[in-house]
Amino acid sequence: LSKFGKRRRGPSLSGRDPVHPYRSTAAQEWREWLSVVSNFMCGIEARPLLQMAKNKDGRPHIRVSLLGIPLVGLLDSGASRSLIGRDGWKKIEGLGLPLEKNDCLKVTVANGSSCKIMGSVEIPVNLDGKVKIIKFLIVPSLVNPLILGIDFWEAMRIVPDVKQGKWTFGENEQGGQEVQVSAALVDRSNLAPEQEGELERFLYKWKSALPAKLQGTDLVEHKIDTGDSAPIKQRYYPVSPVIQAVIDAELDKMLEEGVIERSSSPWSSPVVLVKKSDGTHRFCVDFRKLNAVTKRDAYPLPYVSHILDRLRDARYLSSIDLKSAYWQIKVAAKDREKTAFTVPGRGLFQFVRMPFGLHNAPATWQRFADSVLGPELEPKVFVYLDDIIVVTRDFKEHLETLEKVFSRLHNAGLTVNWEKTRVCRSELPYLGYVVDQQGLHVDPNKVSAILNFPQPKTVRQLRRFLGLASWYRRFVPHFSSVCAPLTELLKKHKKWKWGESQEQGFKDLKEILVAAPVLTCPDFSRPFILQTDASSSGLGAILSQEFDEGEKPIAFASRSLTRNEKNFSTTEQECLAVMWAIEKFRPYLEGADFTVITDHRALVWLKNLKDPQGRLARWAIKMQQYQFSIKHRPGTQNAAADALSRVHEEPVGVINLSFEAVEPWYAKMVREVKKNISRYPNWAVEEGNRLYKKVANARHEIMGQEYAWKLVVPKDQRRDILNEFHDSPLSGHLGGFKTLQRIKENYYWPGMAADVAKYVSRCSVCQQTKPLQRTPAGMMGQQKVVTQPWQLITIDLMGPLPLSTQQHRFLLVVVDYFSKYTIMLPMRQATAKKVTSLVEEQVILRFGAPWKIVCDNGTQFTSNEFRNKMKEYNCSLWYTANYHPQANPTERANRVIKTMMSSYIRENHRLWDRDLAKLSFALQTAVHEATGMTPAFLNFGRELKRSGQEYSQLPDTDVIPGVDRQPHLETLEKLPLLFQEVQDRLDRAYEKAQRTYNLRRRPVNYKAGDLVWKRNFAVSDASRYFSSKLAPKFTEARIKRMRSDVVAELEDLNGGALGTWHIQDLKPHPV
């Protein structure tokens, strides 16, 4: 504006006056393009500011735009920070900007009172075409909607002239053009009480008139033109009984509503049940093969840019949602057979109503919506697919328009979903923009990924950010100059130091990325390009279009991965990035052709996936409704999306030390060295208050004394140094010695060696991944005291073995602990029922019920069936610790049995059960080293004969002579002494084994409640690209109780049971 308020041409976003000619035609064209995009993206036409109108106190105000929302702010030179008051926050709160908690809890205002701060928020501010990111403090108790403090003045470089009511940009900014200051305020209006009452009566009338249940329309039918393609029949996907029950319930519901009917079609597609975010399921059919042979419907979708242009002056807005929109359109009778699907156990069905997932469904719906509402309701009613928007400037006109819309919907037989319908709203998100009575402005989600990009902490993170910015450098004048402070840190041998110049360059570059013409408005006549990437920590996406000047971004997006998503394979994560990006930018991509650019062949794999289940099924079904092609771009050329995907990585890199607030000893040492440097020849203070100490050694004498000076680290900064030099990938989580030597290269502090040792010993990652470099924990367990045969037995399953000629795969081995008597029972299936039956029939009912049974934690022995049967005979069960088989004596017998079997089967391993009875006889008749007797003798009181010839010669008569029983009675009388001898021998064998065992063991004492690291026995899984060799070796646990000196019952940190574990698989948790 001139001094008298006349209109002049507004300046563009770069800060220069576009009226002034440039030396080159290309530059002039670029400036014109910049101005056009600036006008569109700001949501309001660039226009001169209103003539100055001072408040009663004469304070100057200036009009600015916050993400397209116009506000008038007070120019306050006494405010060190810019503030947003209660009314200002109400205007921008709905944008969903991230509110950051501020360290400062209160702020002192001009009258000396203190006001509480709710938080802070970073917002791009547009002042007459110039965009800067300003960090505002939110002060709800502040009357002024917006106070523009000194930080705003410095960022915008404005020079106000309060006396003349003007302001100008500083030197080299906007050519020094004068602009008027304004004090006009803009408020949002709400419905008056009488208007609210009228609206309620209006809605009550139409809620009663419109059908509540799904009816459908007869005005249009969905046709499926497959040409001369032969019917396609696919097998159904097998599902579990639980999922089958859900499918049956959905099937019954659709039959009742008339959505489907029974079929005898030659076509058949498989059913996929997709789990929604609320836990319920969506019934879907995999129509990918049907879509592949269906001819495309070329019915045009409306130009979104045309719709957006009509929405700028809207004051009253309504959005109408139709209930199950696609199901309200019938499928042509002759084409219904093509939608047929099979449900196991229920038969073949086909759709009567238009199902989700057909290629031409959006075109059919758009054609139908256009015919119902018609062009005569424009420009007050817009339909884009299933979105019906009503916009007017006047309340009465709005109700009249809604009356016409609902009347036409009623005549068409359509059902409205009142729960999702929004009527007479002052603000409405639509097609990636936010529409309100003040105009059309950019959805902050488009730029939030850039605004929230964290400050780089390492060279690697800086390279990523510059890679993102460099992708659009052709649209940024003097790009190299803007990036110069940042690229300076990338030079070889350049020490990392993030200063004010780097911070300003980083901020300027972010402002450029969120301002036009870099972030441009979409041209819906051009195809879209969707760049995606996934990292181990997050997802990134950029929506762009190709123009004559090159590829320009439309919107940015990024998010971190959830805990479960981080466990996905690389391919699944890349697929997730693509599907998430498509859903994120659905308002732009739905119904349009676009290209997906990825550095992974993810979607090719997903499109060709057979029998998709779970999340893969959900992704495959969602992908059916979009029309796109896939283009591979190497990772080196996909730097922009890659940078956004890694925004959420934990920062690693050289620590940027801050010495503004240090502990007293450090500050005292700095003062002493500065005061008397000759007294401290090995100390120095440089770069302000940075303290250095000379620590010389033999290596420094060779390389030079300059390498001997080390930066002294204050106490509050030491943990950051330890984290960087131990936890970073460049440090590799190495041991204490290597970590200490690495830190010594640059830093020093008293007690550094002890701090490093303590830090490394408590590193959770090292505890998980590194084995304990000590002898195994736990001495030999206590001796099991038994006094007679079959008092204590041990059981174990061997197998699976090769399928034998007698169809056996497993071998159940039972050993009597006292006599070492061994029973071998071959089995075809190792089920709990079979194991229980064999133990009862072949052991308990032949040799008597034992007192104790020792077994491992196999499901056959922990089953309720086995437990209950043993409880009937009052037999106690002793379970060995997890992954500690040596506690079960049967394992020693198994080793002998395997050796015996392998000695006779030779090449034909299917004969392993042929000689089991003979091998069992051999074991029972062999003297055992521990007892000194044969198991048969201790059980039967006699030795078993290998042949009849071993008996004494009988006379050649048919009369068997009498037997003298006296010797047998005398032998029976000696049984107690015999058992005592066996018991003594077992004790001596235990003591001998204990001495050998304990030589290489160490005692460890644990108690209930102790935190420990439990060994992790991971199993490789090729389908998930998971290798046990790379899995953590230990996981955290807590001791619930000690069952013995060497066996502990564990639980996880949430109280979940983890079973019993031997202490050799545990290591102490650092205190």
From TrEMBL:
GO molecular function, one term: RNA-directed DNA polymerase activity
Coiled coil: none
Keyword Transmembrane among record annotations: no
Keywords: Endonuclease, Hydrolase, Nuclease, Nucleotidyltransferase, Protease, RNA-directed DNA polymerase, Transferase
Class in the EC hierarchy, top level: transferase
Chain spans, region Disordered: 1-21
Domain Reverse transcriptase: 255-435
One GO term describing the cellular component: DNA polymerase complex
Organism superkingdom: Eukaryota
Basic residues composition-biased segments: 1-10
BP-aspect Gene Ontology terms: DNA integration; proteolysis
Domain spans labelled Integrase catalytic: 785-943
EC number of the protein: 2.7.7.49
Protein name: RNA-directed DNA polymerase
Organism: Triatoma infestans (Assassin bug)
